[in-house]
């Protein structure tokens, strides 16, 4: 098993790979969002590790000390804000601590919990991602000289999107637990917005609304609609 990773020694960043030498722990339940982050780290020189829930992240952090942690706010076993608050008060504090959410309003919540900032999904712009990480770095880790700016847009493999659909389908088949629909609506809504799937994003939003304010028949219809769209996207993957 690897020992704790430390800040020194580390490779010097370059103008094309400004995050060289960093190891980032991503706490994210979506395969699609994780793939986008993996590609951005790869292009930037950083190494990425992933945990898909709070439990896995805490186990990881008992063994490794990453340069930075990026935490999705909505996770299957609780709010990412809990982990952000924990890490912000742990000594020594992790070098970079960022929130991650498809909700722009979550940025204030992440900062209040102790994060250095918040990345907003969808994650597509490489330069914007690099700047958010660099802004949280101490001066001695900053790139000396100008950074090569790029307008490169990251497009994750659509197979990862289909994997997320499979997970959602399994959750929708859990009997007798309507509370899980809150998580499914949040999970699918964020993924769909990241992928530009407006139809599924609208259906997920309607499911969340029906859980809060709808009648039982409204909820049944909204759940069925989401289930149909998820199955449709899984069938498209099978046809490829």
TrEMBL record:
Domain Response regulatory, residue spans: 23-136
4-aspartylphosphate found at: 72
Family annotation (Pfam families): Response_reg
Protein name: CheY chemotaxis protein or a CheY-like REC (Receiver) domain
Superkingdom, natural source: Bacteria
Keywords of the record: Phosphoprotein
PROSITE patterns assigned to the protein according to its UniProt record, in alphabetical order: RESPONSE_REGULATORY
GO biological process: phosphorelay signal transduction system
